[in-house]
Design a protein that fits this description.
Blueprint lengths: L1 E11 L8 E9 L3 E5 L6 H8 L2 H4 L4 E8 L2 E2 L5 H4 L3 E4 L14 H11 L4 H14 L15 H13 L5 E5 L7 H16 L3 E5 L3 H7 L2 E6 L2 E6 L1 H4 L4 H4 L6 H11 L13 H9 L4
Parallel strand pairs: 3-8, 3-9, 6-7, 7-8
Antiparallel strand pairs: 1-2, 1-4, 4-5, 9-10
Helix pairs in contact: 4-5, 4-6, 5-6
């Protein structure tokens, strides 16, 4: 069943000379993990803001079309009510830290305190999500004494502990090394497998291919392609749109061009796929 439905969404920021989003339309099933890919200014962040209700409620501007999440339409729902179902993780975790708490543990518990969640349940949820996101050892440290990658995981935990039905992430691994990136993707994937719907904007195509159920490609505010990761991320259109391809896809495409491998071979996107792809090459 679709929990997200975007219908012909067009949006312009106040005083903008052109729309940031143009005629966007798609659905997301409950528990699905969908990644948004695109070059800078493709519309990924604006679409994340629209799904999170910040467009139009916070940024204002002109919005046409509809955004539905969990049976509610954004323009007819207050932002307070909208955020009961939707959680947004920003690209810069510094923007998400409340500044009112002295420890990571208190920061993660902050949203539950505001909702008046009973203390025993709050403790269980906070400790559980801290363990899942790998920040248990940071519990008594100040959120401002952490690295960017650690802060990003704290920001993620602070949203996940609220148990949103839709989790929206705007490039959440931008400050993480490969190990941290994998950890965050694994946490997000496990949450989607538990029923949380995920829509994430991300540049790291290898990880998008490995963990996403579906990919939507954006360019200049428009939706150009949507489908399975292996189909979208190996399309020649990715280069034409300025999105690019993974190093594995580039290497595989070159191998086909020089005749090392037949064109019938499915191009790789991830490291694992590349090993299988080039393992088929003749000696």
């Amino acid at each position: 069943m679709a929990i997200v439905e975007v219908k012909n969404l067009t949006y312009s920021y106040p005083a903008a000379d052109k729309p940031a989003l143009k005629g966007i339309h798609f659905q997301v099933e409950e528990g699905e993990f969908v990644s948004l890919v695109g070059a800078n200014e493709a519309g990924k962040t604006s679409l994340c803001f629209a799904l999170a209700g910040f467009v139009p409620h916070f940024f204002k501007g002109e919005l046409r079309g509809e955004v539905w999440v969990a049976g509610k339409e954004s323009s007819r729902t207050s932002l307070d009510d909208w955020l009961l179902n939707v959680g947004l993780v920003f690209q810069n975790p510094f923007n998400q830290i409340s500044g009112s708490k002295f420890t990571v543990y208190e920061e993660v518990a902050f949203g539950l305190e505001n909702l008046g969640i009973p203390r025993p349940e709050m403790k269980e949820r906070v400790e559980g999500i801290m363990q899942k996101t790998g920040i248990t050892e940071l519990a008594q440290r100040s959120p401002y004494a952490l690295s960017g990658g650690q802060q990003q995981r704290v920001a993620l935990a602070s949203i996940l502990v609220m148990q949103p039905r839709l989790l929206v992430l705007d490039e959440p691994t931008s400050q993480l090394d490969p190990i941290g990136t994998r950890q965050v993707f694994e946490v997000i994937k496990s949450m989607s497998q538990e029923g949380i719907t995920v829509v994430m904007a991300e540049h790291k195509l290898e990880w998008v291919a490995e963990f996403s159920d579906r990919v939507i490609a954006l360019a200049d505010g428009e939706m150009w392609m949507a489908g399975k990761p292996g189909d979208v991320l190996t399309s020649p259109l990715m280069t034409e749109l300025g999105i690019g391809v993974s190093r594995y896809t580039a290497a595989g495409r070159r191998a086909v061009e020089i005749g090392l491998l037949p064109a019938s071979q499915r191009l790789p996107v991830t490291h694992r796929q590349a090993l299988a792809f080039f393992g088929a090459a003749p000696p």
